[in-house]
Please model this.
Amino acid sequence: MSSSVSPRSPLIPGFSKILHGGDYNPDQWLHAPEVIDEDFRLMAVSGCNTFTLGVFAWTSYEREEGVFDFGWLDRIFERMAEHGHKVILATPSGAKPAWMSRKYPEIRRVNAAGLREPHWHRHNHCWSSPVYREKVGAINTQLAARYGRHPALAMWHVSNELGNDSLDGQCFCPLCLGEWRLWLERRYETLENLNRSWWASFWSHEFTEWEQIDPRDWSMDSLSVDWLRFRNWQIQDWYEFEAETLRPLSPGIPVSTNFMGVHPWIDYAALARKVDFVMDDQYPAYEIDDPGLIRSAAAVSFKDSLYRCFKPDRPWMLVESCPDAPQWKERMRPKPEAVHQLEMLQALGHGAEGTCYFQWRKGRGSREKLHGAVVDHSGREDARVFRSVTALSRNYERLAPVLGSTPQRAGVGLVYDWEARWGMEFSEGAARGGHAYETVAGQHYFAFWEQSIPVDVFPSEGDFSAYRMLILPQLWMLKPGVARRLEAFVEQGGILVATSYLGVCDESNLCFNGGWPGDGLMKLFGLWNEEYDTLPGGETIEIVPARGNALGLTGSLTATSLCGILRDVEAEVVATYGSGMFVGTPAITVRRHGQGEAWYVGPRLDAEALGAFYRPLARRLGLEKAWDGELPPGISAQRRLGDGEDYVFLENFTPRSQTIALGGRRVRDLLTGGMLSDALILPSAGSTVLAVPSSY
Ligand code: GAL
Model:
């Protein structure tokens, strides 16, 4: 498929292994050195090679203010180096010591009711407190000075899951509110600008002093969107502050922080620009007999596709996952070895080069004592989960050829934009239930996933020009310049597919006047989306393909939950509404512009209808698949391009054994080392990687 691709540099320079290991907390076992000895023995047995240290270890470093003890960590680092293991060293700011909370109340966040929280839990410090910054700066500097050039140190892990709290679990202290107002002043310069951008005369909300602006006023959705922008600024600012405490003392060592999948309100596309490489926490816990498994697997691939696009030139890593069941899931089902490998290979197929676990060893007490781990309370190396991890390490050695290869270039781009999501989800009257923004984006992605066609996922600031097809699921908010770039994309021959809720609002979340899709886009699509009809839960509406339509659609399609009602259509009508108040009116249209096409999908189509819609388009464009032969339903494939050979990751997300016909092509199964040419049989939950000549 590719003749020559330049290899990507590894996550850790000079370390050509798939990173495999986990969060290791020797700080919880300092009273039991024999357990730590045993850990090092078990690490060697397990074949793991990378360990994250110190995530919540602050009290083990600084039990009393200003009295530091790093002796224990010195010894752990020495032993890591002796064993050839790599360390990801975390900064400890994710959980503060109790003495600090008591002595400096300002570091504890203030809740939405204005009450300062007690010392409890974690991930709950005030982002603006100068005292907390000073304390974090001091401990980080000590860590960086001591370990920043240590041969075992591979990466820095800033804090933990920055922003892992709920929307109303944020800090509303006077310091944070002061920062918020300064941020607003920088953004708007005058209150007049702000009032206009927020439509503030509604309910008499016009502000006459910056101090009047309270973020807890959820009645103004433009304010709420800005509050999330501000919160993201706080998170990024915090990240940069911490990263800067490390970099000067640790030259050349990459710095990052662990992300949390498609978190609804953390704009990871923006945070990804700040980190040196991307790492994610992901806990899919597939159940192979779950009828919804294929959907859940596709949702993880959606997220992985977003992640591989954050920094396309660098591998990313799964820094937290679980070899067994996490204790916070509804059900604690033991994870079979095949499912464990399936989950990990899915990430590698999408460009990851490391998969680590939370956690190496189960602690004896507290909240996560029953959370899956490599080492169970039994401590036995013949425990099922330990053997599963060991088996994966052996397979990772066999997968070494994959290192440095590049995910296949996608011909399809899909726009997923956090700010557009906030705009839609904060707007009362929008059909936003069930995380509709993410869900609908995932449904469009699924139509390609089931055909093993790679899709790049990125926000609306991304470059559209590299794609043959661009999909805009519910791009509610059009930031400045986006509409013109969409027009240029179509003028240059691109196939643009938009859905209802395109261009409802501008970047202030104010509705465009003059008709939807706004910002001049009615002309591009040749229509006016006059109204929206939100269907009652569970109700469907029939969509009738037009005779001789451009896609060759026949029969009828089904739509759910939302219908865009189209008027003044100067485009080819591909399908109409078959029932309901708007029966007979256009539902799906296409307007041609030279070689380019602007498609508009008014209703939210169900999965089957989306498949029927996209298949003919994909065929016509000759979109490359990860595997160009037929794949049984539920088998997913991803391709990575190497030098002379490519690597096709195949995963069976069904409870049945499946046969993949190879049609006489000779391929190498990297896990068994065997050559195959007839068929590959993947057992239930089976996964493997085939090395194929690049010309396939
Ligand atoms: C993550 C967190 C870890 C651990 C894990 C349990 O969100 O970063 O510290 O709590 O969840 O699944």
